């Protein structure tokens, strides 16, 4: 086992992801929690402290391995709360919603430390409200990626991807990117080399989100980028950084518009793309705010629309559509979520690098060229 692995950072900095808007379900997320959930608060937040497993669960029996994994890697939802992070948007009306989504991510992360086998995780996450389920898988992917570094022969991440969560492949690749932020840069190549060649860019997107969320002063205020990133990796990083702005500034369109404008012009399109994805997938705002986002992005509308189309495709593939995603796509893409997802799928066929441009960016450009014809109508 490489000694460098022991420098994995967990606990104090912890984990969290995107949020979601109104679902086609009637549940607000407070009535159908996994049996691993201990308590549900009035605002829909769940108690996901490490080891907070229902004593009546068959899995609650003492497990030395699970205990050790929780002790080393486990995190608390308190670590993703606005009070701990000091976000400028801490008092935004959308913030409780965004924190609730963070709870589901941490729930997925801690659960995967305990019951990492694919069938057990699928069973654990099945009772979660559909609109939050993707975030649990994202958290699980981070946990399994970290565990795989200690026991690479197990391939836990791929077992879950192949045996139970293939429909959540986009979110899982993003979750793997959270792990990149917790390991030495020399080990990142090992993680990326095991991921899907097309979707591995989503892992770098996840790295960007993590840096923006947990070190927003360095990444957003000082606009720093990890020195180890070069070429297109920096652009994928910015796409994730753009998503983090939605959380750091409490989904305030006025705030994020001003912040994006402070970045160098060459970084702004990718930041807008991430914001479009966060708005459509995570949500937390009403129609007026989405319309304001469309007006704020100006010439970057193709990038925002492409981000929204990615969100629609991720939700449709996982069969977890929401009314909010559909509303966002109708405003940002000029079409329904189902149609936007269809565009993303169609333009993702027969992808090849072009003149040194990665196939992933070719995919994004195809969507950006196609959607404005409808978004501008």
Beta-strand percentage?
Answer: under 5%
Main beta sheet strand tally, sense and closure: none
Percent helix:
55-70%
Counted up, domains total: 1
Q: What distance separates the N and C termini?
A: 57 Å
Number of helices: 19
What ranges have pLDDT less than 50 throughout 5 or more consecutive residues? 1-44, 48-62
- Spell out the helices and strands N to C: HHHHHHHHHHHHHHHHHHH
Question: From the helix content, strand content and strand pairing, which structural class follows?
Answer: mainly alpha
Number of strands: 0
Question: Which shape, going by the Cα principal axes?
Answer: globular
Mean pLDDT: 82
Radius of gyration: 19 Å
Sequence-ordered SSE layout with sheet pairings:
Layout: H1 64-73, H2 82-85, H3 95-114, H4 118-125, H5 130-150, H6 156-163, H7 169-180, H8 185-193, H9 200-214, H10 216-221, H11 232-248, H12 253-261, H13 265-282, H14 287-297, H15 301-317, H16 323-332, H17 337-347, H18 359-370, H19 372-375
Helix pairs in contact: 3-5, 4-6, 5-7, 7-9, 9-11, 11-13, 13-15, 13-16, 14-16, 15-16, 15-17, 15-18
């Amino acid at each position: 086992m490489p000694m460098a692995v022991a420098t994995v950072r967990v606990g104090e900095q912890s984990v969290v992801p995107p949020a979601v808007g109104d679902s086609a379900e009637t549940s607000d997320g407070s009535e159908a929690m996994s049996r691993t959930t201990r308590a549900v608060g009035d605002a829909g937040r769940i108690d996901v402290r490490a080891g907070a497993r229902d004593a009546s669960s068959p899995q609650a029996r003492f497990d030395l391995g699970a205990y050790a994994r929780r002790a080393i890697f486990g995190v608390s939802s308190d670590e993703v709360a606005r009070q701990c992070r000091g976000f400028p948007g801490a008092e935004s009306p959308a913030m409780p919603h965004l924190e609730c989504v963070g709870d589901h991510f941490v729930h997925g992360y801690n659960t995967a430390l305990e019951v990492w086998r694919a069938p057990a995780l699928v069973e654990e996450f099945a009772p979660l409200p559909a609109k939050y389920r993707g975030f649990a898988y994202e958290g699980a992917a981070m946990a399994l990626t970290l565990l795989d570094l200690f026991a690479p022969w197990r391939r836990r991440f791929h077992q879950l991807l192949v045996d139970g969560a293939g429909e959540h492949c986009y979110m899982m690749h993003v979750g793997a990117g959270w792990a990149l932020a917790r390991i030495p840069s020399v080990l990142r190549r090992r993680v990326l080399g095991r991921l899907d060649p097309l979707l591995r860019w989503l892992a770098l997107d996840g790295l960007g989100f993590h840096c923006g969320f947990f070190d927003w002063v360095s990444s957003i205020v000082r606009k720093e980028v990890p020195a180890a990133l070069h070429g297109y990796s920096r652009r994928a990083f910015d796409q994730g950084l753009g998503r983090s702005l939605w959380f750091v500034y409490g989904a305030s369109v006025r705030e994020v518009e001003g912040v994006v404008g402070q970045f160098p012009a060459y970084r702004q399109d990718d930041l807008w793309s991430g914001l479009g994805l966060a708005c459509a997938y995570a949500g937390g705002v009403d129609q007026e705010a989405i319309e304001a986002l469309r007006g704020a992005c100006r010439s970057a509308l193709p990038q925002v629309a492409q981000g929204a189309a990615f969100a629609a495709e991720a939700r449709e593939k996982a069969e977890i559509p929401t009314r909010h995603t559909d509303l966002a796509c109708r405003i940002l893409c000029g079409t329904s979520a189902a149609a936007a997802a269809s565009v993303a799928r169609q333009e993702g066929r027969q992808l090849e690098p072009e003149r040194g441009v990665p196939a992933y960016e070719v995919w994004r450009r195809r969507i950006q060229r196609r959607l404005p014809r409808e978004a501008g109508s």
